[in-house]
User: Fold these one by one.
Assistant:
Number 1:
Amino acid sequence: MEVGLQSHAKALSPAPAPCFFRARILRGPFSHHRMKTSDFDYHLPEELIAQSPAERREDSRMMVVNRQAGTIEHRHFAELPSILRPSDLLVLNDTKVVPARYFSNDGRCEVLRVEALSPTTWKCLVRPGKKFKLGRTVEIGEATGTVQEILEEGGERIIEFDREVDEEKHGHLALPPYITRADGASDRDRYQTVYGKHEGAIAAPTAGLHFTDEMLSRFAHEFVTLHVGIGTFRPVSADDISDHHMHSEVYHLSEQTAQAIHRAERTIAVGTTVVRVLETCAIDGALKAGSGDTSIFIHPPYEFQAIDGLLTNFHLPKSTLLMLVSALASKDIMMHAYEEAVKERYRFFSYGDCMLIL
């Protein structure tokens, strides 16, 4: 059953004091313990996986984790202005989700556009893979695509079309695999942040889905851009997390945002994608604007340089994103928080509730 809206705190073991200097993997005595992927597992009843968003963006619940006091509070996202300080700076990811999922005219094949190399040449994941051999053609609407190359590492295909595919007519949003329904018209709005600007993401930066224009206007805020790729859904297959190969994503950090962060008393990242951009750009103790690709893998133990807090959704068991938030709040506190979230019937994942870590 749902918990009441009143807040209450539960004591946890105290978290270590945060450090915001040089971003690096710690090499202390405790780093000799090699962390396993199974260390980040938890039990999640299937009915807690949100299949649709809340009626209104701001209606989601919000767990507040204070990593220094070692407390958990159960609040609502609408209370965020009363929790953060007026001097806090929010940093958000203004990427925009594009329809990346396509089906062949006969309905037998699925093409997921991972990257548009040009308007008519795509890097794709395909299903069924065994049918997409070199020279194989696939028809999507009026366009015919031909497999030009098969990439060894990820099995992606390079498909060249004879004309541009009509995205509005044939494209579907690539909703995450844990959402078991097909995408609908309402997802074109709700699986998109209100401030999304730069097209290129396959998946939404879901922590930002809770914001309305009115809510965002109540905070000082700036943007980064990171185009969320399909790798965000790929599970960690390695037993030892240090053996995991992180996917790469394209980012941009403007000089305006970098300077605003330098001036800010506290920087609150909205989403793990923002964390990955800022930590990538933290060089020699200073945040530097720029663009590029990042494959940064943040997991315990880790010192954060660029952020003082994080607003994020709840993440999949054994995922790199759960490892990232565990590096910020400590694994013990975070795993306890997830147990509490299950107990209190929070809604999980992309269309679910959120967590504020301070």
Number 2:
Amino acid sequence: MTLASILIYPIKALDPVRMQSARITAGGILEFDRVWALRGLDGKFICGKSTEAIHKVRARFMLPGNFVTLSWGSETEEFTFRLGDEDDAIAGWLERRLGQPVRFDADPVRGFPDDTEAFGPTVVSEATLDAVASWFPGISRDEMIRRFRPNLIVAGVPAFWEDRLYTATGSISFRIGDVVLSGQNPCARCVVPTREPLSGDALPQFMKTFIERRERTLPPWAAKARFDHYYRLSVNTTIGSDEAGKAVRVGDAVAIM
């Protein structure tokens, strides 16, 4: 079992960056992962759950220089900004495209995770992504990654291996290289995976098909008590404060403790 891929999402809801390594922050997240976020005037996150047009924003990052290059849909014109120094300019660019006020927030230590209790990186296996992709003709593993937006992808394990990383009532510790993580629960999904990642176009029956297949293929090692519904994929984790400063790296061995 090895760590095959690391993906971080510097601006919550926007495009990922593939990394060869990622340091653990004092807040228990992967460095740079969802450390910037867009909010509306009501303080709520602007993301795919609430703002379908966010799918049209393309973002390329240069880290650790903290540069982001933004473009809109199929337009070829690009605009480059420095995160932290030009946040107001980034917010203004997004306001004009999204047609709503945007506030740009940053938290480099804790970030803005979807799950505020199990706030560590999400984990899934390559085999799981391939299995789920097989349920939807024409969708590749790479597209499934963009739909479900995982952080850590493990190779050398069977489909739904990550469902071994929690119990009916608690967590299970596992190690990636030198870093100890705790699997907490199967991640509940939102409307975002039902949409084509670049256009935002919804795939009819995606959720219904997923739920039916997920229930049918739930492995015997999965704790069914954690499935109040079957629209769940990947595993939420936590990372203890004593792991801060360590790093996970592509190629690291993965082992359940």
Number 3:
Amino acid sequence: MNTTGMTTIEVKKINRSKVYRLIYAERSISKQEIAYKLNMGLTTVTQNLKALEEGGWVCRGEYYESTGGRKAQAIEIVRDARVAVGVFILKKKFIMAAVNLYGEVMQETTVEKDFAPNGEYYKFLGRQAMLFANAVEPDPDKIAGVGIAIQGVVSKDKGAVTYGKLLALTDFKASDIAQYIPYACVLEHDSKAAAFAEIWNRADISDAVVLLVNKNLGSALVIGNEIHSGKNMYSGTVEHMCLEPGGAPCYCGGRGCFEAYCSAESLQREMQMPFATFFALVRQGDEKSVALWENYLTKMACAVRNITTVMDADIIISGFLAPYFTKADIEFIKGRVKAEPFFANREIEIIPGKFGETAPAIGAALRFIKTAVDGI
């Protein structure tokens, strides 16, 4: 980076950020390695480490094995120098998760509470979020913020819901809840938050379509390892792609939407039993259950086929149903897609998500973690 024309303070900030980011990426590194990898003088490295240590951002670890001279000491980031909380609001409950600077989940919990668009509910949720945050990290200065993941399209400034039919939340504002939370607070579209969680620290994923298979189906686009929002924040809502014209009704008012066939709720209506019981029957080879599941997977394959005609990218299956997908299920979907000549020679990658139903809460929290790391 050309530092010509910059003030001394600006150059120092850039150097400090470079040192921190290298430590963050390496997880454990010696002062000498930092100097070598950044082509930076030891004195400059020492000064930056001192500033980062005094700020509580990095700490000294174990000593490395000696290679003949003085043992080098490992430098590591302080994982909980900042903590962020995410809250995922659903119709019958809300899920909370706290993450550290590496995005590792420190704690999560679910609170059973029917959603209601009124002050009593907002106050209850705000207090629960505050108590949860303070239980994880008692020092309020270390809490980076609280992200609220919601089933609705969120405005560009993350301050309001512009479309929220599922919970009748159109025109809901972050301030409705933020007034009860003494930390920075923003709204996140649940699907985009889940996508952010699934690609966190995943340099191997550049472009992807994330399918959030919760009670309701959601989705998000990832382009260049960034969440794509689009002109009006509606980008990636493939759950409303039509699979069957004039087919099953969708909450959006249309018919035949992907959501109407592949949400967890649509599967629940068909199987009429607990998910664990249903999937146990599927794995045991129960004929009726297998037929129902394969019908679901066939609809999923139809959607994947349509998606990949528009965006040649990885498919990530996140959300509540993600843990139920086996390798055989994924191969079933791929086989259905590749059975068509146009897709036969394509590499179609379908990746199970890591976080299940908690993904939106984790992703909402991670937005604050990214801001904290970027700000150093």
Number 4:
Amino acid sequence: MKTSINTYSFGRVRNAAGDPLTMPEMADHARAFGFDAIEFVGLCIPEGMDTDLPGFAEYMKKYCANIGLGISAYTVGADFLAPGNVDRLKKEVEIAAALGAPLMRHDITFAAPEGKTYFDLIPQFAKDITEITEYARTLGVKTCTENHGYFSQDSDRVTALCKAVNNDNFGLLVDFGNFMCADQISTEAVKEAAPYAIHVHAKDFKYVSKEESPEPPAGYFNTRAGNHIMGCALGDGVVDVRKCVGIMKAQNYDGYITVEYEGPFGDPVEEIKKGLRFLKSCF
């Protein structure tokens, strides 16, 4: 297994001038911290750089290669119930290819129309996903979706979607922590989802039940059932990251595991480094 970090994790990190990091600076930090690769959550062209998005993708591909840093994935938002979603995601696939990312992760949707369930919508999702992933295949990119966004989050939902798509160019991005947003026990959910995994996020949360506190404490947000979780460094929360890694190893997963850090407090640089050390100890 190899380590990666996504650019979202650098949200609270600042450079020497006190400004948010540019994406080249994020890549420099990832390399300096000891990660094998970086996962780009969208692309943001630095101020003053005269290029378009495909050009910047090619720039970052070369930049990462020059500093000896791999690119694990390209992550974008999506809503398969929105008009024009398929065509827009095909354009994002082209960005992923220019970036040299081996796979692109996209969302599904965040709520069902009135009177519909997630499972009612799977045939429509599967049709559109197939069109996108077959286009991605022509560009050498795999596609995947993540247990993410409260609605397309439960292990039974995302695995049912994968079974319906039934395409070797499409799979799951299994996020260890995100199952908690749907009030699932991470290890049980990961065990169900692992056979469909083509990419992995390692994330940890602290947890306070709604019985302990009706309202979320500072820094926490609500799960679907109204419990409260807060991002933290790997190993500091209630997600059994070590066991989840073991489940992936037992499934013969040998790809990247991306650290996703979203803690609201503390020094984010030290928290990210701490999480990387913990993840490596799990290997």
